[in-house]
């Protein structure tokens, strides 16, 4: 507005408004995107096992899971949340977060799928034994990478034995440890142990079997799901 009462042109102090706008802009700039949490638990699983994803961030987030997995979040996700997925192969979880006026943030998780290795103890081995209705033998496992460790032991679902007792010398305590393994009831007692070494496998004779039964299996077999040493969860 102009005041012409004294022949002098006066204008409103627009610089005040501009200065106020600059102050507001300066107060909202440089707010960077931030990932507070990005977890997958556990990070190393058997195919189809559940993995819980959990995340929290500041900004606008987009999640991509490769390959796509049923019930997995895809695209825009809220600033915090959880989801359960069941990967069947190596799966990558990528989170990208942006925020106006600031730098973006990104995080990645890799979910590893355990390899299945067969531990077969031959009943033709000279050390095999059968007494008190129990047959046993030793699987001599070698030639695997030194860093390959056991995640869990399982029994083949179609193998005609009721279950097994497995004994292995703990690499940390040097003491023998025994765990029972049955179809549908895997054992995690040996988690973290190197797969290389001797694994004593024993099983009760089936009803009607004797130590000299011609129908005794040639091998006692358990399945070891393995991981690379150091596999596990954590925040990247």
Briefly summarize what is shown.
The chain has 236 residues and is mainly beta. The chain is built from one helix and 16 strands. The chain is elongated.
Please tag this protein with its features.
mainly beta, Immunoglobulin-like, disordered C terminus, 6% helix, 236 residues, 5-stranded mixed β-sheet, 5-stranded antiparallel β-sheet, 1 helix, 16 strands
- Arrangement of strands in the largest sheet: 2-8-7-4-5
Tertiary shape: elongated
Largest sheet: 5 strands, mixed
- Based on secondary structure, the structural category is mainly beta
Overview of this protein structure:
With 236 residues, the protein is mostly beta strands. It has two domains: 34-113, Immunoglobulin-like (Sandwich); 115-228, no CATH class. The chain contains one helix and 16 strands. The strands form four sheets. It has a five-stranded mixed sheet with strand order 2-8-7-4-5, with no helix packed on it. A five-stranded antiparallel sheet has the order 10-11-15-13-14, with no helix packed on it. Mean pLDDT is 83; it is low at 5-9, 12-28 and 231-236.
């Amino acid at each position: 507005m102009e005041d012409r009462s004294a022949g002098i042109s006066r204008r409103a102090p627009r610089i005040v408004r501009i200065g106020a706008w600059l102050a507001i802009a300066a107060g909202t700039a440089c707010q960077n995107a931030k990932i507070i949490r990005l977890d997958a638990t556990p990070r190393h699983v058997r195919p189809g096992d559940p993995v819980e994803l959990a995340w929290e961030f500041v900004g606008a987030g987009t999640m991509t899971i490769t390959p796509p997995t049923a019930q997995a979040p895809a695209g825009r996700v809220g600033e915090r949340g959880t989801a359960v997925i069941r990967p069947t192969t190596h799966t990558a979880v990528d989170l990208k977060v942006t925020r106006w006026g600031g730098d973006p943030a990104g995080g990645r998780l890799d979910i590893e799928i355990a390899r299945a290795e067969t531990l077969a103890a031959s009943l033709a081995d000279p050390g095999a034994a059968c007494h008190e209705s129990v047959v046993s033998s030793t699987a001599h496992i070698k030639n695997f990478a030194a860093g390959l460790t056991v995640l869990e032991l399982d029994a083949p679902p179609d193998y005609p034995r009721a279950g097994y007792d497995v004994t292995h010398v703990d690499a940390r305590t040097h003491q023998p440890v025994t765990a029972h393994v049955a179809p549908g009831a895997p054992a995690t007692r040996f988690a973290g142990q190197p797969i290389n070494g001797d694994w004593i496998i024993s099983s009760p004779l089936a009803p009607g079997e004797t130590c000299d039964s011609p129908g005794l299996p040639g091998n006692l077999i358990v399945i070891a799901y393995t991981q690379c040493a150091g596999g596990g969860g954590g925040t990247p």
